[in-house]
Amino acid sequence: MKAFEIKKNVYWVGAIAWELAEFHGYLTQRGSTFNAYLILDEKITLVDTVKATHKDQMFARIKSIIDPAKIDIVISNHTEMDHSGAIPDVMDLCKNATLICSPHGETGLNKHYDTSKWNFKVVQMHDTVNIGKRDLSFILMPMVHWPDSMATYVKQDKLLMPNDLFGQHMATYERFVNDAEFDIVMEEAQKYFANILLPYSRQSTNAVSEIVKLDLDMIAPSHGLIWRDKDVQKIFKAYELWDANAVKDKAVIVYDTMWGSTEKMANSVYRAFEKLDIPVKLKSLKKYHISDIMTDILDSKYICVGSPTLNNTLMPTVASFLYYLKGLRPKNRIALAFGSFGWGGQSVKEIEEIFKFLNFEILDTVTYEYVPHEEDLDKIEKDLEDELK
Ligand SMILES: Cc1cc2nc3c(=O)[nH]c(=O)nc-3n(C[C@H](O)[C@H](O)[C@H](O)COP(=O)(O)O)c2cc1C
User: Fold this and answer.
1) 287: exposed, middle or buried (C-beta count within 10 Å: 0-12, 13-18, 19+)?
2) Of the residues 261, 284, 309, 349, which should be mutated to test ligand 1's pocket, given the most ligand atoms within 8 Å of the CB?
3) Are 332 and 247 in contact (CB under 8 A)?
4) Best exposed site among 52, 141, 161, 303 by fewest CB in 10 Å?
5) pLDDT tens, 287-327?
6) CA angle, 219 as apex, 113 and 216 as ends, to 5°?
7) 373 noted as active-site residue
8) Do residues 283 and 135 share a domain?
């Protein structure tokens, strides 16, 4: 296991989790990395660590360049255990090390670990710590995406380590975005934003507005690949749109079905968008995972959700999707509820309750008693087409 030099005397010493399948319900089909960075200066500084399960990888990479016991400073940009998980081992090994974190970082670390022997240095917004040839400064980013979140900036290296901000879940041999397949990295960055940062787009906007003022040519997040040179501006541009909930004229249809009627209706809805040349995707919840659907939802103007009525309510798959959507809080959308029913027909009302909570503009509900026939499906298509025109 080797360390990888990303700037003169600044090394990536993280872990590649090729096997990682999911993160609290977010599918990571491409695996991920836990990125830790080691700065060799008068004070040897470790920025973030890795998940405890992957600590051997981190220590092996550190050992390829220095004795880990020589670390003087550990920075915890974010308390979540995929980044702080190996801090207890480092602090145990480096008894005199200083642990730098935000005020909420200190509270959070105290609630996760036995910190009684740790030397904390709590930093505030824009505080600076000199480590020799370098000055490290800190940008506090509350709720991007935990209260403790902060970014570490190294002025002399034009380097920002913003932890989860600008991250992507991808296990790769390459470390830089421009050595990997750009479209795939952007897709994973979009999925990351949609599933993790979307509810905090206001706070993310504030954080990014501070970050764009910095003199930067490299952003090294805590997951996935490192943005450098021209790619820095590309991810800024993407975040500007995602933070603003900017939508494209496109639609996503999300549904489940027991006997096929709601699926037939979903196809009618699909044809209405197709007729109007509005790009549309059809996502059966039997096939697509909610965390992948969110990637498409992020920049889609139209969100259509279909469920038959089952036991006076929604199908549980649709309820699960809607509760996930409710938590992630996309804004500025136009929404359609549809579904087949037998007698009560409660499903569409429950879909619309969530749409109302999210302040979506709601299109005319589409329901059908039991099995719709060709002429009914044509009418659903025509009515929606007329409404969308
Ligand atoms: C187990 C089961 C429970 C159902 N419960 C309800 C219900 O509570 N209220 C209702 O209106 N219809 C109920 N239905 C009828 C379905 O909503 C109806 O068959 C509908 O056409 C199914 O749509 P689908 O083909 O998209 O699954 C139920 C059907 C099944 C199989």
Assistant:
1) exposed
2) 309
3) yes
4) 52
5) 999 999 999 999 999 999 999 999 999 999 999 999 999 99
6) 125
7) no
8) no
Residues 178 and 152 grouped into a single domain: yes
Domain shared by 72 and 163, yes or no: yes
Residue at a domain's end among 187, 219, 243: 243
Annotated catalytic residue, options 80, 188, 263, 296: 80
Whether 218 and 340 share a structural domain: no
Catalytic residue check, 145: yes
Among 184, 218, 243, give the residue marking a domain's end: 243
167 and 88 within one domain: yes
User: What is the CB < 6 Å shell around ligand 1?
Assistant: 257-262, 308-312, 340-345, 370
Of 223, 243, 256, 263, the catalytic one is 223
Q: Note down the domain range covering 316.
A: 249-388
Determine the distance separating the centroid of ligand 1 and the alpha carbon of 238, expressed in angstroms. 42
One-letter amino acid for residue 291 of the chain? S
- Answer yes or no: do 196 and 50 share one domain: yes
pLDDT tens, 47-74? 999 999 999 999 999 999 999 999 999 9
Q: Which of 226, 144, 214 is nearest to 177 (CA)?
A: 226
Instruction: Determine the length of the chain.
Output: 389
Q: Are residues 185 and 291 part of one domain?
A: no
Domain identity same for 331 and 270: yes
pLDDT tens for each residue of 161-196:
999 999 999 999 999 999 999 999 999 999 999 999
Among 253, 256, 257, 259, name the best residue to mutate to test ligand 1's pocket (greatest count of ligand atoms within 8 A of Cβ). Answer: 259
Closest to 12 (Cα-Cα) out of 208, 210, 224: 224
Structural domain total, the chain: 2
